[in-house]
Write a structure and sequence with these properties.
The protein is built from 2 helices and no strands. With 72 residues, it is mostly helical.
Amino acid sequence: MTTRSRIAMLIYGMVNAVLFGIGAVAVLTVGREEQWKYLLPLVIVASIVLAAPIAWLIAPRLRARYWRAPDA
């Protein structure tokens, strides 16, 4: 198991929580009560699925001592 995958697994839960929080607030403020029972499970599934690639992209930046944007 690589260091990148270990770091990604560690931050997966945090990324998932942030994505779920953003989605839940958006659904609860915009949607109607009748729509909540359909939209909240969708937000849960979307946050679980989207958290993995986002954590994978963030992991190398956490390992780097001095992260800089690529030179253009």
